[in-house]
Design brief:
Two copies of one chain form a homodimer.
Chain A: H1 3-8, H2 10-21, E1 24-25, H3 26-37, H4 41-53, E2 57-62, E3 65-70, H5 73-86, H6 92-102
Antiparallel strand pairs in A: 1-3, 2-3
Helix pairs in contact in A: 3-4
Chain B binds a DNA duplex (30 and 30 nucleotides) through residues 5, 9, 11, 25-27, 30, 39-43, 45-49, 61, 63-66.
DNA sequence: GACTTATATAAGTATGAGGTGATATGAGGT
DNA sequence: ACCTCATATCACCTCATACTTATATAAGTC
């Protein structure tokens, strides 16, 4: 499943927003999402699986809990894809500064 | 349709990549996408409609042609959503430089 | 070992998105 | 007026995905 497909679902985006704050157990996130979207526990679990399979999240087992944390790899790919559009909203000098900040500036001939 | 849903489709991403290079007629883009994905003209036209409806592209009529150009608004929203994850891959000093470049730095107490 | 809690998996269903072929629209040329 | 080219829209079909309920797994407690 492509990174953008993963981000296409509002529940998954919400889960990632929660993970952006830091680690959370499956149960904590399930409670939040159930309250907000009114879906079942298995539904949330399935979304978490999608996040795992696509490399957006990884799990650590802590007793009976599964502690999730965000994995930024696929998000960086998405960010990289957006690069080609930044010129449409970033003024030139600022774009240069951003590139320098990223260490991506190419040698000029 | 949410911006991320729009970007979830590979054909639409390809169309946007083409538009990132500059304006293109519907026909030109249709030819490229048909060659690459093997779908029909109506299919491409429907994807273009999605891009229009979601504010990713706008059209100018030139005789019998429709000339499309990219509209960056929704892409900026996507970029803004990603902000909360940048800390996971951007070293701190570079993150600061990026923020300064964007003029988003908040006053510190 | 039985019970509970936490979480995942299985199996089935339904809705929506993306495809198709056929057709409409609309501009330009003859 | 008619034909063609460029593009959009229509009606229909199919399949993937996001649900559901039911059940399995695994750790901790009594």
């Amino acid at each position: 499943m492509h990174a953008f497909d993963v981000l296409g679902d509002p529940v998954r985006r919400r889960l990632l927003e929660l993970l952006a704050e830091g680690e959370h157990s499956s149960g904590d996130m399930t409670a939040v999402v159930q309250a907000e979207f009114g879906i079942s526990q298995p539904a949330v679990s399935q979304h978490l699986k999608v996040l795992r399979d696509a490399g957006f999240a990884s799990v650590r087992i802590d007793g009976p809990r599964r502690i999730y944390s965000v994995d930024a790899g696929p998000m960086r790919e998405v960010d990289a894809w957006l690069d080609r559009f930044r010129m449409f909203w970033t003024p030139k000098l600022e774009a240069l500064a951003t590139e320098v900040a990223r260490g991506k500036r190419k040698r000029q001939e």
